[in-house]
Amino acid sequence: MSSPDLQLARRTERLKSSLVRDILAAAARPGMISFAGGLPAADLMPQLPLEATAAPALYQYGTSEGEPAFRTAVAHWIGETGLQVTPDQVLALAGSQQGLDFAAKLLIDEGTPLLCEGPTYVAALQVFQLFGADIVCAPLGAEGPDLVALEHLLATKRPRAAYLIPCFQNPGGACYSAAARVAVAELFDRYNVILIEDEPYRSVALDVDHPMTPICSLLKRAPWIYLGSFSKILWPGWRMGFLAAHPALMPHLVRLKQAADLHTQRPGQAAVAHWLNSDTRGRDLERLRAGYRVRRDAMQAALERHFGAIADWQMPRGGLFFWLKLRGELQATRAMLDRALEQGVAFMPGEAFFAQPAEGHQYLRLNYSRATPEEMESGLATLARCIRTAQDLQSRPQPA
Ligand SMILES: Cc1ncc(COP(=O)(O)O)c(C=O)c1O
């Protein structure tokens, strides 16, 4: 069939396929060991309070802002982090990804400078680039951004907004120190940068000994949008997330919600509100974290065995990923993906997480929440072999 002559919006030229979703499709093949996605562990997910979703009234249209019970429960939940918001400042979302879409629509015109961490979340890059952001990246260490580089970027590039993932960053695993949070807030206030703070992994804190105060709560002047998700703690298929925002931004965000999908599904809001108000929540999260600790430690041990000589990394203190930097000069990790998939192992190459993909050549992201210890052992052995083979091929003298 010949393809029709499509007249599409100019921005579609910037609409890239998400590498994550492509790899996830390959990773779903039978027998594949996948370290690629960010899927939570099914056996550790809490029991869903389905009884809360049964009232027929929940199947009628609802309000764009969200159910009052959901907004109230989420406002309390956010309050526990140290960010005090009223229910009026909460908007129910179809996953926090929807909040990224709204933030992009609200803040980005073609060429708008936007500050991100380098590396950053791949699907955030996808939507920011679709709307034409001119992305500048602040280099990120284990405890937050390089503050000198950050201030230089703020002063020279004058970004309208910044997108940060301060708790167990995806993909790098960074968790901002208390001091970094204060310093970043001061800089954003000084340069009046709107903060988009994204926190899907806050509740997957495995061993952190400092307060993880949201940076939004430390701002005195700069407006902010705070994003949260239930995907990693209460099943992602529900597509339940939320945002809270500075009062000046809320009316715009509510209109974007109306224009996007009228409102978030009501049974899911009822289930989440029920879980948030229940006394099982604390136990559910403790069980989840305990299970993840075991898996994280198993992955660390398997990585030491198979990657100790070829890569460097820091053990994540939360979140769902290891972020490895391969030693030595190497072909891009993206180029190794096909061979690894052929051998039955999926991973995420580092290129996907940078606005300038070449900056990610030496990196790979590995999820630890899904594989069994046996799969970790054999999958990482296979992956390390693929990398060694690539290194051997590369170091062999080329025929003259
Ligand atoms: C940093 C980050 N933000 C947002 C999301 C999207 O989460 P949700 O399932 O709530 O849309 C993810 C999912 O992996 C993520 O890692």
What do these coordinates show?
By secondary structure, this protein is α/β, with parallel strands linked by helices. The chain has two domains: 10-45 and 283-394, Aspartate Aminotransferase, domain 1 (Alpha-Beta Complex), CATH 3.90.1150.10; 51-277, Type I PLP-dependent aspartate aminotransferase-like (Major domain) (Aspartate Aminotransferase, domain 2, 3-Layer(aba) Sandwich). It is built from eleven helices and 14 strands. It has helices at residues 19-27, 68-79, 96-107, 122-130, 147-157, 178-191, 250-261, 266-277, 281-307, 333-342, 373-395, and strands at 33-34, 90-93, 113-118, 134-141, 144-145, 161-164, 194-198, 224-229, 241-245, 311-312, 321-326, 345-346, 348-349, 363-367. The strands form three sheets. An eight-stranded mixed sheet has the order 2-9-8-7-6-3-4-5, with helices on both faces. It has a four-stranded antiparallel sheet with strand order 10-11-14-13. Strands 1-12 form a two-stranded parallel ribbon. Strand 10 and strand 11 form a beta hairpin. The protein starts with 18 loop residues before the first helix and ends in a 5-residue tail after the last helix. The model has no long low-confidence stretch (mean pLDDT 94).
Short description:
By secondary structure, this protein is α/β, with parallel strands linked by helices. It is built from eleven helices and 14 strands.
